[in-house]
């Protein structure tokens, strides 16, 4: 189950607390402490190819889009 599916299910079960409790008991994803799924891009939510330098926590795609706005310049 992907993260978007998880959010959809939780919004659908907000009106049914008993079923929601049972669902959470059996289907809640584990909190990740390490590995690929522990860190994701703060902008788009991708898991791979992250730029952690300077506390950015962005994937490479979002970094390319936002680099000039943040203040980075391209040298070549």
How do you describe this structure in short?
The protein has three helices and two strands; from the N terminus they run ααββα. It is mainly alpha-helical.
Distance from first to last alpha carbon: 43 Å
* Rounded radius of gyration (Å): 18 Å
Estimate the strand proportion: 5-15%
- The CATH class label of the largest domain is Few Secondary Structures
Q: Describe the biggest sheet?
A: 2 strands, antiparallel
* Topology as a string of helices (H) and strands (E): HHEEH
CATH-wise, what's the superfamily of the largest domain? Ribosomal Protein S14/S29
* Proportion of helical residues: 40-55%
Helix/strand/pairing category: mainly alpha
Query: Which segments are poorly predicted (pLDDT under 50) over 5 or more consecutive residues?
Result: none
Q: Which CATH architecture of the largest domain is right?
A: Irregular
Number of helices: 3
* Overall pLDDT confidence: 86
Q: What order do the strands of the largest sheet run in, or round the barrel if closed?
A: 1-2
Your description of this structure?
It is a single chain. The protein is mostly helical and 76 residues long. It has two domains: 1-30, no CATH class; 40-76, 30s Ribosomal Protein S14, Chain N (Irregular). Helices cover 42% and strands 5% of the residues. The protein is built from three helices and two strands; from the N terminus they run ααββα. A two-stranded antiparallel ribbon has the order 1-2. A hairpin with a 6-residue loop joins β1 (50-51) and β2. The longest helix has 11 residues, at 17-27. It starts with a helix and ends in a 6-residue tail after the last helix.
